[in-house]
Amino acid sequence: MTAGEGSPASDAELVELLRQNGIVLELDDLEALLDGVLAAPEGEDSLAWTALVSENPSPELVRVFQDLKARRRSAGSKKRPPIAERLAGVRAAMAERELDGFFVPRADEHQGEYVPKRADRLAWLTGFTGSAGIALVLEEAAAIFSDGRYTLQLEQQVDGAHFERLHVTEQPPAEWLLEKLPNGGRVGYDTMLHTPTQVEALIQALAPGGIELVPLDDNLVDHAWSAQPPAPLSPAIPHPLEFAGRSSEDKRAALADDLAKRGAEAAVLTLPDSIAWLLNLRGADVPRTPFCLSFAVLHADGALDWFVDKRKVTPALARTLGNSVRLQDPDALGAALDGLGARGAKVLADPGSAGIWFFRRLAAAGAKLLYAPDPCQLAKACKNPVEVAGTKRTHERDAVPLIRFLAWLDREACARADSGNPITEMEAADKLHGLRRETGKLRDLSFDTISSVGPNGALNHYRVTEETNRPLTRGEFYLVDSGGQYSDGTTDVTRTLPIGEVSVEMAERYTLVLKGHLALGRQRFPKGTTGSQIDALARQYLWQAGLDFDHGTGHGVGSFLSVHEGPQRISKVPNSIALQPGMIVSNEPGYYKPGAYGIRIENLEVVEEIDLPGRERPLLGFHTLTLAPYDRRVIRLDLLTGEEQAQIDAYHARVFATVGQHLDEADRTWLAAATQPLA
Amino acid sequence: MTAGEGSPASDAELVELLRQNGIVLELDDLEALLDGVLAAPEGEDSLAWTALVSENPSPELVRVFQDLKARRRSAGSKKRPPIAERLAGVRAAMAERELDGFFVPRADEHQGEYVPKRADRLAWLTGFTGSAGIALVLEEAAAIFSDGRYTLQLEQQVDGAHFERLHVTEQPPAEWLLEKLPNGGRVGYDTMLHTPTQVEALIQALAPGGIELVPLDDNLVDHAWSAQPPAPLSPAIPHPLEFAGRSSEDKRAALADDLAKRGAEAAVLTLPDSIAWLLNLRGADVPRTPFCLSFAVLHADGALDWFVDKRKVTPALARTLGNSVRLQDPDALGAALDGLGARGAKVLADPGSAGIWFFRRLAAAGAKLLYAPDPCQLAKACKNPVEVAGTKRTHERDAVPLIRFLAWLDREACARADSGNPITEMEAADKLHGLRRETGKLRDLSFDTISSVGPNGALNHYRVTEETNRPLTRGEFYLVDSGGQYSDGTTDVTRTLPIGEVSVEMAERYTLVLKGHLALGRQRFPKGTTGSQIDALARQYLWQAGLDFDHGTGHGVGSFLSVHEGPQRISKVPNSIALQPGMIVSNEPGYYKPGAYGIRIENLEVVEEIDLPGRERPLLGFHTLTLAPYDRRVIRLDLLTGEEQAQIDAYHARVFATVGQHLDEADRTWLAAATQPLA
């Protein structure tokens, strides 16, 4: 909207307009709602939020809404106080509670990878915006801990005068505390943000030093953070059966049956993807993942109490939920747990993902606790046939922008580099995003695109910024790890490609990574096999050369949900969850040469039953979802076996046969060449 | 000795003869000692036991000893009462304690794979002689549980009228108990024979049914077993530094240091191989493993209390032990633990291997328990350079009888089969044993030879008996898994070979097993890698064909100690112990077609550091210890990659170069042909 289109509506005019449209909402409520909207991410559809006010707003109403939102944004944007002041505020709250320290983790109360603005206390307090970290505030000292991915970012974003910037495994918070508080002390933590598993480990580590962990049912940062945003508000909408494949009633009945069998009356659900899956709903409270932040209690009769801000629940969703899903005020959660406790109910809660607040509250009220994994997670991981069909469709659709992007790069990158107007990492990421948008189906990216060239590719979780934005340069590898959220699925794909000629070593190591990726992808395995059992298949050729990579080989992927989900995982870390039909996992070995280049090749695979003649065991294997060519320019044929060549050729043929028809002629010609048999 | 050589000495003559030889021993003591000797296995050297009486007995004295032993054996051999009577005895003891049931596990108080005759309560009570099982005796019912290996043996050895014969995982003891005691009850167990880990699992499983586990500090079977043998007596002798490579003082000092660092004053040692390793001693109390059964308490100052029957401690050993190893009466063990408790000491004990008796006694006395793995196990697993050199020597020596055996089979098996006088499994096992004896260095077999042909090969832990003894028949696979104990090491090797022509399928599956064995054997891996991470490398080709095998791929192997040792393991089961230089592991994938044939190929490998140019990680790999050809007649060349062919050829060349020179001409010619390059 441009400034000339009309002057802002007055308050009176606005209320009148709302009334004309059948919306009974006080101005205060509308403003509070807009603050919530502003605390949620914008997303691909900048008007989606208007569903919170009206199911079918008139264009005029939409214009007014947008205008109001813009005004509210300006009104709300306050300069943050300096770090010293923020720290002083937290320290004042500590003093009031007679605490010597306080933990400020990155996590929110859902232990999410993405947290809403309101919960990003770590960023507010320290300036650090990385996705993993924890700060510790003491009276005279403070420190922030993150991992190797973020060493540089910590240095750039966090003021060393206020915070020691430390590596979380080299100098863990507990060790630092023991050193700083040699005579013991009382250190507080917010019980909503720390799980029993985490607290248990801290208690064990701190006990020898006489340091007492003090559970707090509020957060000291919140007291100091005057302009803390409200909880995010985004429309919670139905995830229709054509995508979900199974009704919420059916899912709840199955889980309830299992609860009953285990003698439990109820299960506490704190993971937003569990609730989204169980209720067949999607939201937009955090970026990149279509969550609706809320809590729930599932009962052994299949009924569910959903503790959610009712403003988020769109009429369309409300119509699908049915009577046995009871909308409850978020503030009623504690009392509901007390009620379970009062009748001595046995309640399941997940010590690995739920805040210890739940366990303390339930135990205090008299409930019997059943410590067990969130029961939705495994059920959700095993996609039903409708979801599998959806994700196959999604991947065919998402292959088009990716292949168009690869063709564009091949045509442009060297020429642009030579002309002195190189493509940059940022431009490339934007280009790919735009091409995905052109599908007309993109709901969001599934994560911030990793678009990296040269040494930036060796930084495992690199995200390009204005400061680091590097031109695509001849002789370097360009690595792009990206994905989209679509109603029928979630994609995640990595390709690495040479800009012009690269070194012999680079091609050799590309081929070693590829050989591992192929070995894992073609492996069949008996039912019962876990991801940790097959992880080494992807590393064997790198290991043979004395090389390795320091991340997992594969993570679970949701169905229009989180791009990282459990409980399965292909990794060195032991994992007891067997791979099961319908599970989607990534297959993404890599190799990273610090300061030089990074290689990663990633497909998503869905686990399928294999009906092989002569098999003696129930057999599983992978069907590759991702459709995009490997880069033949850096495949060293002399390092491949005949089996590997045939595997690449068959895959490439499939890519062309499936995607070629959806491309224009130029791109189709490019793809035909890129997918020609190797020999 | 033949009957005519002399009449048995009278008691008076005997005492006189002993006195003449400077041995002051009452007749009663001598008889008790002989009973102990008879309760130990005989071993390769049937006179070794005489070291218990005299360091250098005269030939005459030896003759008398042997005579006495024979007399004592006849006197001691009583017919066992019928099963019903044995069961009645146990039930009477149960009634006295007001128990509804009693557990009779196979385990002894050292959780050993081999148990002494005295501790083989399960065999006495039920007749079952397998190496894994547990019985449960109730007032009106009884059951025995074992695993799939022993289904047939259970049926053959155990009377179904007295015992239900059950599969331990299909119908676990706890489930059976819950079913038989629907109203709850009291079930006793011997605290020496069950570890805290085992008891904890049972308590958890039984609690819902109101079944109480009652700890007993004695064993009800012992009350019923009137002719129970005494504890075994065999000479405990030094394991000299030339084989051990490291002094006991040094080992104890290192472990003591570690104990002190963990704030512990002492560690309880219950595993006989731990004590053998730590004190550099060997014994012969059980078959196949040169153990001396005893307990020990290691103190944080490096001193050790050794609770052992002093009659076992030979003067030669006593001279090596030094002052800080204090010989204690076995009966003094409880009081020693009480002493630790009385001063509130922190004591390490291994809940996975020590009887719960230790934990209960220590806790009752006031000790603080440190639950941790037996500290000797990991240290022992990492062989020092002297031990590694020893095991290499052992394997070169042991290769000679094995290759002579393979050559003999190749020359004889078909001819004998055709002549109607086939070689049998038993004859083959005896032949191999005899050839090993001819090395002049064999101390014992390292386990009972698995010599199996045709369908018997498909039985994983088959041991030939008179009843099952099968002739080596054309068209079948012969599988031989065997090993020897030598002063400088322990061997364990499996080869599978065709008798005449075998089917295409058999050769194909032999080749799949071999490919997995080769893949594992040649794999390099970064420091920190565990055996469970690389297990799938040995299975990948079988899996690809829908096949698998139901045992671990590799176990640790001792240095003139147990042929199965931990803590490392190559297996599907997650194991957190990284493979480390000096560890010896078996590499033994297999394939078993029930009712038809079995294939297993096993080498021992020692983990070594690999100094590969360009490596970016500390790198480890395997050096193959075992030296014996694979069977080229059943290797399907068309299924091998060039890398695999080269690997086999290089190994075969090494086998010939190393062992050929120690063979006579006929066998050398045979080996030359068997180790020719494949192509």
UniProtKB/TrEMBL annotation, chains A, B:
<keyword id="KW-0479">Metal-binding</keyword>
<feature type="domain" description="Creatinase N-terminal">
    <location>
        <begin position="86"/>
        <end position="218"/>
    </location>
</feature>
<feature type="domain" description="Peptidase M24 C-terminal">
    <location>
        <begin position="619"/>
        <end position="678"/>
    </location>
</feature>
<keyword id="KW-0645">Protease</keyword>
<dbReference type="GO" id="GO:0070006">
    <property type="term" value="F:metalloaminopeptidase activity"/>
</dbReference>
<dbReference type="Pfam" id="PF16188">
    <property type="entry name" value="Peptidase_M24_C"/>
</dbReference>
<dbReference type="Pfam" id="PF00557">
    <property type="entry name" value="Peptidase_M24"/>
</dbReference>
<dbReference type="GO" id="GO:0046872">
    <property type="term" value="F:metal ion binding"/>
</dbReference>
<dbReference type="InterPro" id="IPR050422">
    <property type="entry name" value="X-Pro_aminopeptidase_P"/>
</dbReference>
<dbReference type="InterPro" id="IPR036005">
    <property type="entry name" value="Creatinase/aminopeptidase-like"/>
</dbReference>
<keyword id="KW-0378">Hydrolase</keyword>
<protein>
    <submittedName>
        <fullName>Xaa-Pro aminopeptidase</fullName>
        <ecNumber>3.4.11.9</ecNumber>
    </submittedName>
</protein>
<dbReference type="InterPro" id="IPR000994">
    <property type="entry name" value="Pept_M24"/>
</dbReference>
<dbReference type="InterPro" id="IPR029149">
    <property type="entry name" value="Creatin/AminoP/Spt16_N"/>
</dbReference>
<dbReference type="GO" id="GO:0005737">
    <property type="term" value="C:cytoplasm"/>
</dbReference>
<dbReference type="InterPro" id="IPR000587">
    <property type="entry name" value="Creatinase_N"/>
</dbReference>
<dbReference type="Pfam" id="PF01321">
    <property type="entry name" value="Creatinase_N"/>
</dbReference>
<comment type="similarity">
    <text>Belongs to the peptidase M24B family.</text>
</comment>
<dbReference type="InterPro" id="IPR033740">
    <property type="entry name" value="Pept_M24B"/>
</dbReference>
<feature type="domain" description="Peptidase M24">
    <location>
        <begin position="421"/>
        <end position="609"/>
    </location>
</feature>
<dbReference type="InterPro" id="IPR032416">
    <property type="entry name" value="Peptidase_M24_C"/>
</dbReference>
<keyword id="KW-0031">Aminopeptidase</keyword>
<dbReference type="Pfam" id="PF16189">
    <property type="entry name" value="Creatinase_N_2"/>
</dbReference>
